[in-house]
Amino acid sequence: LAGTVPEEPRCTVERADASLTYSLFLQRFAFSRPVILGGVTDNSAFRALCTREKLLAAFGPFLVRLSTANTYSYRKVDVPFQEYVEHLLKPQDPGRLGSDTLYFFGDNNFTEWGPLFQHYVPPPFRIPGTSPAYSFGIAGSGSGVPFHWHGPGFSEVIFGRKRWFLYPPDKTPHFHPNETTLAWLQHTYPTLPPAQRPLECTLYPGEVLYFPDRWWHATLNLDTSVFISTFLG
């Protein structure tokens, strides 16, 4: 589905390509600031398995756990994957609260989804003392996760475009915890002085964003999107 959210061409997140070495990643980004990595993985095989038809054929009857798209809620709803794709995977209603918006991301049953994840090629960098865990998601245009923070990680776009907003740990963003990212973008973002705007960028398929520990971040899917994160815990 075509996105209903206009793309912002401005990108204030630094970019790096496959020439970035592991030592330079640790020195420049791992503990200090986010970076967008291009050309560091080839997930064409994984992408071929993530089309609507392939995913419905493989996982249609399996239950998936949906989360509300707000910041401080733990409400979960289990539905068959096919029901989510055919009835809930739609553009975000701008007037709908995050606490009433269900989103498939992160709560993956690894017994069922494990065979798919075996085909995913994660980014080649790690943080010493951490181990990776995958979180896979699919969401409609205009949807997203509002501002929150946790440990470091990578997030790769498989299909669609995904806009990111990031603040360092010492700059708590102004947002309502029950407001969707789309509502924040429409109501709060335009009022921010330039010095109070987040780092931001739109990611395209095959691009990977790295975010350090405790960085605030929010996401907005500009299209119906498929994405996967590698959390370093």
Automatic annotation (TrEMBL):
A Pfam family matched in the record: Cupin_8
Superkingdom, taxonomy of origin: Eukaryota
GO molecular function: cis-regulatory region sequence-specific DNA binding
Residue span(s) of domain JmjC: 99-233
InterPro entries: Cupin_8, JmjC_dom, JMJD6_ArgDemeth/LysHydrox
Record's GO cellular component terms: nucleus
PANTHER family in UniProt: ARGININE DEMETHYLASE AND LYSYL-HYDROXYLASE JMJD, JMJC DOMAIN-CONTAINING PROTEIN 8
Protein name per UniProt: JMJD8 protein
Source species of the chain: Leucopsar rothschildi (Bali myna)
